[in-house]
Amino acid sequence: MPFKANYFDGKTSETHVAFICPNSISWKISYHNKENNVEHISWNIQNIKRSEVHTQGLISFTYGSTFPFQKIESSDTSFIEYINKNKHKNLHNKVDTFLHSHKKSL
Known about the structure:
It contains 2 helices and 7 strands. By secondary structure, it is an alpha+beta fold.
């Protein structure tokens, strides 16, 4: 099941609407480039780092070993649930997991 996200390629300041298809080894990311052609990239799960974005309803990840990094941001609740159930250690942050697992009460 693909999850919706915003993708930043680390080369330009453009935001690309993307779809992520994760599995236990990698994340396959698809988006349309400036010329409206579909681009496909793959992130090895071992190199994905959870960003410390302490905002309820938003998760963020970076990829790469040198700046500028590629980045994914998502408010897709299905993706957040998928990440919270995932056992891979670098996909978790205790504060973010707490924020996303508790409903905001008014």
